[in-house]
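During the reporting period the student researcher (J.K.) took over the structure-prediction task from the postdoctoral fellow and processed the backlog of single-chain submissions. One of the processed entries is reproduced below for the supervisory committee.
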Amino acid sequence: MMSLKVNRPTLGQRIRRQKWVLLMLVPLLVLTIIFSYLPLTGWVMAFTDYNIGASLFGNEWTGLKQFVRLGSYSTDLIRLLRNTVVINFVSVFNNLTCALLLTLLLREVKWRFGAKAIQTVTFFPYFVSAVIAYAIFNSLFSVNSGAINMALVRSGLIDRGYNILGDAKYSWGLMIMVNLWKFTGYNCVLFMAAAAGIPLDQYESADIDGASRFQKAVYITLPSLLPTAAVLLIMNSGWILNSSLDMFMVFQNTTNMETMEVLDMYIYKYGLKLMDYSYATAAGIVKTGVSLLLLVIVNKSVKKLSGTGIF
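J.K. obtained the following structure tokens:
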């Protein structure tokens, strides 16, 4: 049998064919290099005894001294990692799950204006600043004047309001709730965009077969959204150790610091407050390395289970 030889375009031919698309990507590539990769030269501070005002490469070389120092603070490091991982991991899981359920429900709302209104209301918190977010939660959960605490006290269910914003035992639940309120609508928009690409003939075939609305949601809409959920899970896994610094700065206080302080706050404290740039940079490098490792592990696991991955 004769085999047909396929002439594949060379690299040069592919570049010439897509030259205008590649040219449009040049500004994005330049900005990425300037703002994402050039600042990585500052990592040299982790290996030197950096002094403010001195040249970046003109300081005494100290090798791995700052990393050894970071390891010596194992008790603090374990506490910081515990707070960071618990809050962010649960937040990612809750945000994606609730956004997926919200998308399924909104797809079943036949009143278009109502569905759009709900989507707008849930998406709005994504644009709310940390200060405004704290003001909203303070008006709800303040011990003496919070609307929810006052309602519970007046109804006789509790004698005194719960110190949600100040008690350390509520910190994890508080930040998980704040993240759920802030990011569920944003993730829902992504799921709705993915759902818009589901072929209508699948629903028409299901109608002919007599499928109910619940069955169409479970067997058509949900499986079609799972690849998007897998990609979002992979992308968010790389941010497990990253926290919304502005949000933690306004919600943290001296009474809840034990469970509210996260790795980013620790780096901020040593870097900008104590001006120990070398130590803060070393902690940042470790955080980046672990985040990349988590991204690779989650991507490989999800790709093995679902066949969907980002690389």
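The committee noted the following: The mean pLDDT is 90.
J.K. will present the remaining backlog at the next meeting.
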